Amino acid sequence: MTFKVRRRALSPRRQALLEGWLDRWGLSEAGPVLDWAEVFGESAAGVDAIADEFEDTASDHSPDVVLDIGFGHGESTSKMALADPSTADVGIEMHTPGVATLLESIERDELHNVRVVHGDALMFLDRVGSGTLGGARIFFPDPWPKVRQHHRRIVSADVVRALVDRLRIGGTLHLATDISDYAEVMQRVCDAEPQLEGGVIDRPDWRPLTRFEQRGLDEARDSWDLLYRRVS
Question: Quick check: is 61 in a domain?
Answer without folding.
Answer: yes
